[in-house]
Write a structure and sequence with these properties.
By secondary structure, this protein is α+β, with helices and mostly antiparallel strands. It folds into two domains: about 80 residues, Arc Repressor Mutant, subunit A, CATH 1.10.10.10; about 190 residues, Endonuclease, Chain A, CATH 3.30.870.10. It contains 13 helices and 13 strands. Strand 5, helix 9 and strand 6 form a beta-alpha-beta unit.
């Protein structure tokens, strides 16, 4: 009996995916998710479809139970259609970045966040170490209220930026891991001593976790997300970046997830990987 139920579930799922596999029907669902209720002619115009094409594909969606026609003659998503449409951005994100995901991984991120990948759809990708560092520098330098940072790899100029921000009263929460890379020139400089002074004042809070699935950079206006490569190394060569509120929330929530499970950082030099 259980096997029969599994087969029925699989059959229903493949039927749904078959409807979504058509470009026009996919676009209609997306349009309805954005606008709520539309007339057939409005759909045809918005998606550059003939009335015949719009009617045929809308009828398929109605037959599949994804769309219904209300008493005003407008089409709208059913509950089934609404829940389906909410996942379209999930597939858009992974399909858009399918080539990038050959080199980088999300599998080390907690599953609850992988289930929310639809929130990341409105981001841009920055490639190249020098460009990534410039974008992170700008994100941190423009912060006016706070910074949340999971440090993948520190660099000297960043240390000075953070000190400048702290001097201006910006609250910073920073998470280090046992894989965080810190150049020896930072350890040998006055930066650690200055950072400890801000920690004593409560403006800077630092915690340590054993490992993370992503490096996070969040200010009140922008967020950046860096994934490890397939070897688990943050190579600083790729960065997702966005001002989108859903992207920002996802990154903030992931930071808080790690922050709440982290320990107070003591003896930073003994925690991080110091390199020449």
């Amino acid at each position: 009996m259980q096997d029969d139920n599994n087969y029925e579930d699989i059959h229903a799922t493949t039927d749904l995916l078959f409807e979504l596999a058509n470009t026009s029907r996919y676009a209609i669902l997306y349009e309805l998710s954005r606008k709520g209720e539309v007339r057939l002619g409005e759909v045809a115009k918005a998606l550059n479809l003939t009335m015949q094409e719009a009617h045929r594909n809308m009828a398929r969606l109605v037959d599949a139970g994804l769309v219904a026609k209300n008493t005003n003659g407008r089409f709208m998503l059913t509950e089934y259609g609404m829940l389906t449409a909410r996942q379209l951005d999930y597939f858009r994100f992974i399909a858009k970045h399918r080539d990038l995901l050959r080199s980088y991984t999300l599998t080390r991120v907690p599953s609850v966040f992988m289930n929310r990948l639809n929130e990341l759809v409105n981001c841009r990708v920055v490639h190249g170490v020098s460009v990534v560092l410039e974008k992170l520098k700008a994100l941190e330098a423009r912060a006016e209220e706070y910074l949340y940072i999971i440090v993948a790899q520190a660099w000297y100029e960043e240390g000075n930026i953070l000190i400048e921000r702290l001097s201006n009263g910006i609250n910073i929460r920073m998470i280090l891991t046992n894989s965080t890379i810190v150049p020896k020139e930072i350890i040998d400089s006055d930066i650690p001593k200055t950072m400890r002074r801000f920690e004593l004042n409560g403006v800077l809070q630092t915690r340590i976790v054993e490992g993370v699935g992503a490096a996070i950079y969040v200010s009140e206006r922008q967020a950046g997300l860096m994934l490890p490569n397939l070897s688990g190394i943050f190579d600083m060569n790729m960065l997702f970046l966005s001002e989108d509120k859903y992207f920002h929330t996802w990154c903030s929530d992931l930071f808080i997830h790690y922050w709440n499970s982290a320990d107070e950082a003591k003896g930073v030099e003994r925690i991080v990987k110091v390199v020449e």
